[in-house]
Amino acid sequence: MRATLIYGAGDVRVETRPDPKVAAPTDAVVRVVRSCICGSDLWPYGGMPAQEHGRPIGHEFLGVVEETGSDVVHVRKGDLVIAPFVYSDNTCEFCQEGLQTSCLHGGNWGVNGVDGGQGEAVRVPLADGTLVPVPHTEDRDLLASLLTLSDVFSTGHHAAVTAGVAPGKTVTVIGDGAVGLSAVLAAKRLGAEHVVLMGRHQARTDLGREFGADDVVAERGEEGSTRVRELTGGRGTHAVLECVGTLPAFEMGLGVVRPGGALSRVGVPQYPQGPIGRPVFTQNITITGGVAPARKYIPELLPDVLEGRYQPGRVFDRTIGLSDVPAGYRSMAGRDALKVLIEP
Predict the structure, then answer these.
(1) What are the helix (H) ranges across 257-340?
(2) How many CB atoms within 10 Å of residue 268?
(3) pLDDT at 344 over 90
């Protein structure tokens, strides 16, 4: 099969790899029908040290089950399935608490002999706990929206849930990438009264407005924080959904959160420490968020996507074939594309 490997910063290649096979009774082999490039993939693409042997990359995919191990009972050959961005048994104590990202037996795609998602097929460990069957469809828009449940829409939802977004709440979303736009959609779905989107790329913020953002703030830093406070009567917002992962974004979030409010971080942090001292303490601000347990959220979000009430797949603004994945990375790194969809 063909699959994408990363060798270092700026060095992504599509190569021939051995076809995946069932290696344990709990495995399944899935033929990928849709995958994509994630904003978090751009961190290694931008700074990973060069190495002699590439490693598989990609953690979001939708596919058809081709083969199952003898212990697999909940998915079967021919099923169309969503694969969350980590695999899990969905039975351990952490999974039962809705924290499949901390599964005692789970893991990440692309490491420890497990395939990455940006390829033609994937061996899926713990298939019964990981994969979520969905109705078969040829609707391209629906397939794109189903794919977002593997990561970005679930991650935006996680940001909103952990920050306590609910009817009557005000929300600031920091970042106009795919996760930020998904967070706007998730906040409106949960009944947010007023959503401010902080972003400066008009094509993206225009989509953010269509997803439900009431205001867009292009300014950054202290200027951006001041502008959000002006829009909220000087108080700030009940919830801040930080969807970037940089220290300036986190600091800006602290500048716009209302006393007693919550700042949820779902952008992968690219900094070792941040300001959580006395001002955060005295204002009773909650710092929350973390890696999203997509496997928990997919069953909740799936009906709205299947019925077309929400179309998170609109975050994809470019579609490529597998051979063009290196160009797709260049497009996303250069901000020429918001999120790239891959059709193997």
Answers:
(1) 278-282, 294-306, 325-333
(2) 14
(3) no
pTM flag (> 0.90):
yes
Q: What is the mean pLDDT of the chain?
A: 97
C-beta separation of 342 from 36 below 8 A? yes
Hey, which residues does 231 pair with through a beta bridge?
A: none
**Cα dihedral across residues 100, 245, 266, 329: positive or negative:** negative
Residues 6 or more apart whose Cβ sits within 8 Å of residue 234: none
Of 295, 307, 275, the closest CA to residue 158 belongs to 295
Q: Please enumerate, as own/partner, the contacts of 219-223 that have beta carbons within 8 Å and a separation of 24 or more.
A: 220/248, 220/252, 221/248, 221/251, 221/252, 222/255
Instruction: Please check whether residue 172 is in contact with residue 255, taking contact to mean a CB–CB distance below 8 angstroms.
Output: no
Q: Model confidence over 69-81: pLDDT tens digits?
A: 999 999 999 999 9
SS3 178: helix
pLDDT in tens, 226-244: 999 999 999 999 999 999 9
Is residue 273 a contact partner of residue 113, using CB atoms and an 8 Å limit?
A: no
> Shortest CA distance to 294 belongs to which of 42, 44, 62?
62
Q: What count of residues does the chain have?
A: 344
Q: Which are the contacts of 223, defined by CB distance < 8 A and separation ≥ 6?
A: none
Q: pLDDT band at residue 155, thresholds of 50, 70 and 90?
A: very high
